[in-house]
TrEMBL record:
UniProt key word Flavoprotein: yes
UniProt cross-references to PROSITE patterns, sorted A to Z: FMN_HYDROXY_ACID_DH_1, FMN_HYDROXY_ACID_DH_2
GO biological process, one term: aerobic respiration
InterPro entries on file: Aldolase_TIM, Alpha-hydoxy_acid_DH_FMN, FMN-dep_DH, FMN_HAD, FMN_hydac_DH_AS
GO cellular component: plasma membrane
Protein name: Alpha-hydroxy-acid oxidizing enzyme
PANTHER family, per database record: 2-HYDROXYACID OXIDASE 1, S -2-HYDROXY-ACID OXIDASE-RELATED
Keywords (A to Z) from UniProt: Flavoprotein, FMN, Oxidoreductase
């Protein structure tokens, strides 16, 4: 029996989560599209970047505290929006939001979450959190979602721009991904090996898409939801939609899913407060660059107009440090917290955050810094880190 005191890295949490989470949901979180080349590169390309170790530097009084869009954070990390989080562990979004609140970092709820906006607000005493929105054909539903986010005390809206159409993830097709799992022989055999997960699900009523079912005309159960979602992601999404959402929302706006410098310049002109350099965890365009490789070009293109963050492949505090050195004001973590959630629930998410902060704090000190806000690319070994892509 493994306990939390024996967990020393995110990989430890991943191994346990793989044992405890049903295969279709573990694979949903831990996979990419097509060959999964971009999914693997996200993590691998961080390892190519080397840190300069400094000595005889006073390491007392270290701090990882900073801000993200004006919000004080314990470290430059926020929990990314991830769909089906409540299928990694019963009430998963609620548990992750509680862990983030206690740690002092932002939590982002996905439109495609199992727990609803109202669930998160109720179980976190209306502590401010962020909400992620997709552009859908049903604009009346989008308006209601935005209004519900306001009512739930969301302090920022995160608009995902890279999912007008869905990238093909082979494992989801092979596993017959559905929420809840269909009672096939294959699924029943797999579920029989996950008693902890099954007991948790028996103890909750949250097994569907809480932000959608009951809030959309004609969507009262899962049979109608599947056809609705297949038709709802809007392939006509353009910058006019961004402007419409910005005006409707009226608060802090984060644009997620940008990878090209030209799009970064458009984002800077849009009036958004931040953008997330992201290839959707390698789940959309396989063959796209790793997020960390695209980051320097995006920082250069954005200039001083908006904050630049990144996600994809962040599995350690050293990854956070490297992203910060290359100009990211902050990073979003998805799989790292999902592994913790699947392994140990809320305690596992807290453990993942503790691991990342400790690695960030220690590595920063070895590089000669005691404050995350003074870190820049001078902590990196020249020739080992990406530079802005050449202009075409």
């Amino acid at each position: 029996m493994v306990n939390l005191s024996q967990i020393t890295c995110i990989e430890d949490l991943r191994v346990i989560a793989r044992r405890r989470v049903p295969r279709m949901f573990y694979d949903y979180a831990d996979s990419g599209s097509y060959t999964e080349g971009t999914y693997r590169a996200n993590e691998q390309d961080f390892q190519k970047i080397k840190l300069r170790q400094r000595v005889a530097v006073n390491m007392e009084g270290r701090s990882t505290r900073t801000t993200m869009i004006g919000q004080d954070v314990a470290m430059p990390v926020a929990i990314a929006p991830t769909g089906l989080t409540g299928m990694q562990h019963a009430d998963g979004e609620i548990l992750a939001a509680k862990a983030a609140k206690e740690f002092g970092i932002p939590f982002t709820l996905s439109t495609m979450s199992i727990c609803s906006l109202e669930d998160i607000a109720e179980h976190t005493d209306r502590h401010p959190f962020w909400f992620q929105l997709y552009v859908m054909r049903d604009k009346a539903f989008m308006e209601r979602l935005i209004d519900r986010a306001k009512a739930a005390n969301c302090s920022a809206l995160q608009l995902t721009l890279d999912l007008q159409i869905l990238g093909q993830r082979h494992k989801d097709i092979k596993n017959g991904l559905s929420t809840p799992p269909k009672p096939t022989l294959k699924n029943l055999i797999n579920l029989a090996t996950k008693p902890r997960w099954c007991l948790g699900m028996l103890g909750t009523k949250r097994r569907s898409f809480g932000n959608i079912v009951g809030h959309v005309d004609g969507v009262e159960d899962m049979s109608s939801l599947s056809s609705w979602t297949a038709d709802q992601f809007d392939p006509t999404l353009n910058w006019n939609d961004v402007e419409w959402i910005k005006q409707r929302w009226g608060g802090k706006l984060i644009l997620k899913g940008l990878m090209d410098a030209e799009d970064a310049r458009l984002a800077a002109q849009s009036g958004a407060d931040a953008m997330v350099v992201s290839n959707h965890g390698g789940r959309q365009l396989d063959g796209a660059p790793a997020s960390i490789d695209a980051l320097p070009s995006m920082v250069e293109a954005a200039g001083e107009h908006l904050e630049v963050w990144m996600d994809g492949g962040v599995r350690s505090g050293q990854d956070v440090l490297k992203a910060r050195a290359l100009g990211a004001q902050g990073v979003l973590i998805g799989r790292s917290f999902l592994y913790g959630l699947g392994a140990f629930g809320q305690a596992g998410v807290s453990k993942a955050l503790q691991i990342i902060q400790k690695e960030l704090d220690t590595s920063m000190a070895f590089c000669g810094h005691t404050n995350i806000n003074t870190v820049d690319k001078n902590i990196l070994v020249p020739g080992t880190y990406p530079t802005p892509f050449e202009a075409r």
